[in-house]
Amino acid sequence: MTYGGGDAAREPQLDSQNTLKPRISTTTNQYGHAVSRISVTQILEATGFEHSYRRPIDALADVLLRYISHVGKLSVSYANMSGRIQCNVFDVILALEEIASVHGFAGQSDPNHSLSSSGVVLDLWRVVGKEREVPFAGSIARFPVTRSRQVETSQDTENEVEWGHIPDWLPSFPDPSTYTNNSVSNESSVPRKQMERPHFSFRKFFSVNGSDGLAPIGNTNVERENEMVQRNPYLVPPLPHRERQVSDMTIPSERKAVSVFETFAPVIEASGGEIVEERGVISSKRPAVRFRIGVGTKSMSKMLSLRDTGMKEDLWTVKEEEMDSKKRRAEMILKESMEKPNELAQL
Amino acid sequence: MMSGSGNSSGAASTAGADGRHDDDAALTEFLSSLMDYTPTIPDELVEHYLGRSGFNCPDLRLTRLVAVATQKFISDIASDALQHSKARVAAPIKDNKSKQPKDKRLVLTMEDLSKALREYGVNLKHPEYFADSPLTGTDPPTREE
């Protein structure tokens, strides 16, 4: 048999509700649909067709699968009505009779007709006995094939310590070295990359006792918790309800420039001067920067306004380094513009 | 399973015990002949789709029975479609001056199949065209506008 028609197998088709639906409806049906297509093609060839388009074959394959499901459903319902869960040959015959009742079969009018010799069975017997046997082309394996699941490690297999309160089917605990805060065991079992030492150590800043946070701790969880609480000021238990002496707040009368270094001076002293200083002293006077007026960037207007009002020194200089780099960039651009007055880049 | 068959056929049959035995023997013979016959539809496919409907039976003869029934059903539809196709080929052509003679090949088309399936209660409608643009199906001069 030859196939015709240039339609792709997955071309969407409009169904009765005018919704686009792929030809092969679900991924789970694809294999069965393909196998039934082969069977349909063989049946059509045996009937006498020489050629066919692809779509009628797909339609007939779908009809075939639906017919099998329909017979199965009817047989099961007849078996359930008789109080059984496993189907009988008579359940199947009754189902086939119900389907054939639309067209009619021999002996349908007789309500007491024998199922063993019903017209349906005789028709099938004729098919088996007389018609030429056309076996299925090729052989297929039993499907669907179930993938063997990988059984995850459970408590009974992995855990050395047997906990009485933990059921066996739960997954095992992770490696103890991953959650104990033992510095020795950490380095040995979990190899870490060599990280750069940060300039500012927050651990030291927040340490209450002044000691390193990575100290070996006791075995029980309660002791571990208490020590963690003592070390971390945010986990300190709240103060009980009573009056306490609080130090007076000093409101700065003058507005003076606050620098990063001044703010974190005690920290720097505590950490032993580890902060890398790029420059020693910030000079109060800065070289004048000339800007082009009328380019229209936000930063430009801000800088110009500052220059006019002279409030440069009132800026919060936490972003001091940023401003320095911007200033340097601006100087470079100015130099370039001075050299090439014709080709001017926007600032 | 065959012992349980006595209930339904006993109540149904009016021929008496001998007739019942004959019927049962015929059925047994038919089912055993099924094992010699290999249906075109493979057993694995039928088993899978029967299993999806809840049909649970370890007996292979029942599976073969359903396979043979399905094969008969499809072949009936195919033969009806063949009749329609032959009728189309044999029909006289309206204008005999036309260029090509009627195609003698027997090709299964959607039209013939939908006519054949209609008698079995399956409504199959094949869309004539896919409207992927608003101008599909309109006359060429309208499209050019």
From TrEMBL, chain A:
Location of region: Disordered: 1-28
Indicate where this protein is primarily found: nucleus
Q: Where is the Bromodomain associated domain?
A: 29-105
Q: Which GO terms describe its cellular component?
A: transcription factor TFIID complex
What is the annotated localization of this protein? Answer: Nucleus
Keyword flag Phosphoprotein: no
Entry similarity comment: Belongs to the TAF8 family.
The answer to whether UniProt assigns keyword Iron to this entry is no
Q: Name one Pfam family in it.
A: TAF8_C
Keywords, alphabetical: Nucleus, Transcription, Transcription regulation
User: What GO annotations for molecular function exist for this entry?
Assistant: protein heterodimerization activity
Residue ranges annotated as compositionally biased, kind Polar residues, are 14-28
Signal peptide location in the record? none
Name of the protein described by the UniProt record: Transcription initiation factor TFIID subunit 8
Taxonomic source organism: Rhynchospora pubera
TrEMBL record, chain B:
Disordered: annotated span: 1-21
Q: For this chain's UniProt record, which GO biological process terms are given?
A: transcription initiation at RNA polymerase II promoter
**Species name for this entry?**
Rhynchospora pubera
- Main localisation: nucleus
Note the PANTHER family from the entry: TRANSCRIPTION INITIATION FACTOR TFIID SUBUNIT 10
Keyword Magnesium among record annotations? no
Family of this protein: Belongs to the TAF10 family.
Which protein are we looking at? Transcription initiation factor TFIID subunit 10
Q: Where are the compositionally biased (Low complexity) regions?
A: 1-17
Q: Which GO terms describe its cellular component?
A: SAGA complex; transcription factor TFIID complex
Going by the UniProt record, its keywords in alphabetical order are:
Nucleus, Transcription, Transcription regulation
Q: Could you tell me which Pfam families the record lists for this protein?
A: TAF10
Tell whether Kinase is among the UniProt keywords: no
Where does it localize?
Nucleus
Gene Ontology MF term list: promoter-specific chromatin binding; RNA polymerase II general transcription initiation factor activity
